[in-house]
Amino acid sequence: MSAEEPLFRVVRGVPTAEELAALVGAVIVRSRPAARPPVAASAWARSSRPAGAGSAAGPGAWRASGLPR
Fold it and tell me: What DSSP letter does each residue of 18-43 carry, written as one string?
């Protein structure tokens, strides 16, 4: 394949510049390798974050943040 030869060509119709850009974007996204799934946190890391113990914003939240849970 030479440098002047296009990677693909339009066989029918007259696409606009926006349609061609959307096509190129779709081809690029589909040609990328799939993303790796996120790594789960270890049991050691999870032990320091009890479920449902997030800090809540609102009146008195600053005071509640210093109280024992």
Answer: HHHHHHHHHHHHHHSPPPPPPPPPPH
Tens digit of each residue's pLDDT (9 = 90 or more) over 40-58 = 877 777 666 566 556 667 7
Residue with tokens 């349609």: 19
Asked if 65 and 55 touch (Cβ cutoff 8 Å), the reply is yes
In whole angstroms, give the CA distance from residue 15 to residue 9.
11
Comparing C-alpha atoms, which of 10, 35, 4 is closest to residue 24?
A: 10
Indicate the pTM of the whole model.
Answer: 0.40
Q: Given a cut of 60, is residue 61 above it in pLDDT?
A: yes
User: What 3-state DSSP class applies to 14?
Assistant: coil
